[in-house]
């Protein structure tokens, strides 16, 4: 058994298969398990990583894994804020600590907007129809995927200011692109999962160090104790396919790893690279069509300042500094164990849809970042940068562009024993981001065991059920839609 890619999906599949007694080998192209989210040390021994990732309240399966691994990698629940060049725009509380209201009323009432008028916020109410109508089914994805998020908000009467100051900033740091470049289907799925489904869903914890050190390292140790092999610096270039439509081996340059089944667990960009070198995969239209999918550039910076700076909240999102770029900054003195006693201030600032920055030198980027930080927290203006790390990540995260759904792959492929996993795979669990990647890894492991006829399937915790009023709304909507189909033409293009 071979798993390709050592991120959340690949480690998840490998761990469960190893626990079930399978002889499983995990191949990772990079120098260490974890891919882009693992983190590493600079030559000076300081921890850096390719952007910081939050762990949200509905990440039920990841939190269950953490309990199983018996580790304690997370902070407590943290508050967050949002800034524009005008200053502080939004403050978010810890929603689970407040009286629970029917969704999305709690989110609406408890989120504190500094400048956005109530009349603009109320203009989002008609959008609730689309939220109810989008149920993560194949039909719903096909209805909304060819529409841009910008069109969606405009068609449902969202005010220009609400879109500019609230929804597009969410897209820039959630789907990593401006609204005209985001699928409406992906937008609805993300908004519902993280913000609208249940009041606490926006609550978040953070890793108390790099994910590689705090989570992936002890996880890999567990995998190896269970009998799994984890091999870094092994870039897959092809599959060996027999005349029964089955993969019998995975090719890494001059090496061949025999396989009864294969799980791919890499991002869109990595998968496209594998397909480009693989005649076996290029022979299938589903894999050739992956070239229609895209990815987004990310810039991750870490700055060490010469003094302590009072930062009101540890995690912050920012918009309006560049037209098509969102960014976040984090107070690592508050979040990461190794910086708690740092004499100065350590900041992680990550930029998404950052293509215009990647060609700049470090010496050009660092003053830009410091100036942006000083716009949000003026004390940064007088501080001096004494050390820094700049990591350029071209095509690093999935781009859920309008029309992309038709090219995404399901877990099962046209090869009998080749399965897919990752945050860009079609699945019906309803989760997003790291949680979705991990869940699809478990699903792929279950497909492998079903195919081979041995092993206990992994338990996958479902997303929390819709609240009663949402269930009623979806039921009524489905009945009306079914009735209209029987008497009216289909006005949705395929």
From TrEMBL:
Molecular function terms from GO: oxidoreductase activity
SUPFAM superfamilies reported in the protein's UniProt record: FAD/NAD(P)-binding domain (SSF51905)
Superkingdom classification of source: Bacteria
Pfam families referenced in this protein's UniProt entry, alphabetically: Amino_oxidase (PF01593)
Residue ranges occupied by any Amine oxidase domain in the UniProt entry: 9-446
InterPro entries associated with the record: Amino_oxidase, FAD/NAD-bd_sf, Zeta_carotene_desat/Oxidored
Gene3D superfamilies registered for this protein in UniProt: 3.90.660.50, FAD/NAD(P)-binding domain
Protein name: Amine oxidase
Species for this entry: Nostoc piscinale CENA21
């Amino acid at each position: 058994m071979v798993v390709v890619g050592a991120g959340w999906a690949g480690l998840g599949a490998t761990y469960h298969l190893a626990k079930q007694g399978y002889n499983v080998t995990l191949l990772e192209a990079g120098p260490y398990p974890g891919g882009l989210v693992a983190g590493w040390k600079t030559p000076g021994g300081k921890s850096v990583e390719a952007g910081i990732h939050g762990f949200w309240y509905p990440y039920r399966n990841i939190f269950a894994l953490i309990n199983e691994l018996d580790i304690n990698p997370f902070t407590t629940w943290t508050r967050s804020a949002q800034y524009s060049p005008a200053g502080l725009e939004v403050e978010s509380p810890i929603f689970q600590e407040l009286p629970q209201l029917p969704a999305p009323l709690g989110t609406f009432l408890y989120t504190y907007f500094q400048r956005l008028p109530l009349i603009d916020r109320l203009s989002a109410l008609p959008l609730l129809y689309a939220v109810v109508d989008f149920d993560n089914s194949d039909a719903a994805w096909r209805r909304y995927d060819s529409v841009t998020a910008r069109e969606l908000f405009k068609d449902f009467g969202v005010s220009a200011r609400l879109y500019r100051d609230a929804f597009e900033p969410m897209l820039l740091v959630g789907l990593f692109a401006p609204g005209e470049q985001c699928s409406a289907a992906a937008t609805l799925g993300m908004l519902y999962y993280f913000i609208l489904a249940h009041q606490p869903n926006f609550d978040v914890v953070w890793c108390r160090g790099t994910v590689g050190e705090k989570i992936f390292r002890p996880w890999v140790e567990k995998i190896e104790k269970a009998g799994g092999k984890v091999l870094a610096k092994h870039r897959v270039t092809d599959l060996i396919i027999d005349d029964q439509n089955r993969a019998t081996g995975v090719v890494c340059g001059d090496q061949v790893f025999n396989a009864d089944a294969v799980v791919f667990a890499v991002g869109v960009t990595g998968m496209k690279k594998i397909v480009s070198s693989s005649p076996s995969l290029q022979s299938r239209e589903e894999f050739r069509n992956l070239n229609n999918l895209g990815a987004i550039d990310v810039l991750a910076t870490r700055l060490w300042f010469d003094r302590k700076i009072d930062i009101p909240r540890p995690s912050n999102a920012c918009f309006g500094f560049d037209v098509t770029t969102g960014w976040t900054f984090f107070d690592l003195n508050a979040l990461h164990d190794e910086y708690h006693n740092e004499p100065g201030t350590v900041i992680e600032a990550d930029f998404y849809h950052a293509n215009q920055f990647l060609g700049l030198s470090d010496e050009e980027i660092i003053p830009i970042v410091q100036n942006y930080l000083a716009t949000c927290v003026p004390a940064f203006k007088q501080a001096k940068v004494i050390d820094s790390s700049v990591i350029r990540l071209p095509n690093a995260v999935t781009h859920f562009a309008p029309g992309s759904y038709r090219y995404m792959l399901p877990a099962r492929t046209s090869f009998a024993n080749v399965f897919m996993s990752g945050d860009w795979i079609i699945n019906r669990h309803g989760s997003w981001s790291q949680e979705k990647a991990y869940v699809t890894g478990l699903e792929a492991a279950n497909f492998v065991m079903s195919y081979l006829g041995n092993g206990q399937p992994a338990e996958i915790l479902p997303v929390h059920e819709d609240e009663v009023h949402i269930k009623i709304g979806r039921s009524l909507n489905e009945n009306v839609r079914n009735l209209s189909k029987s008497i009216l033409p289909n006005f949705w293009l395929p």
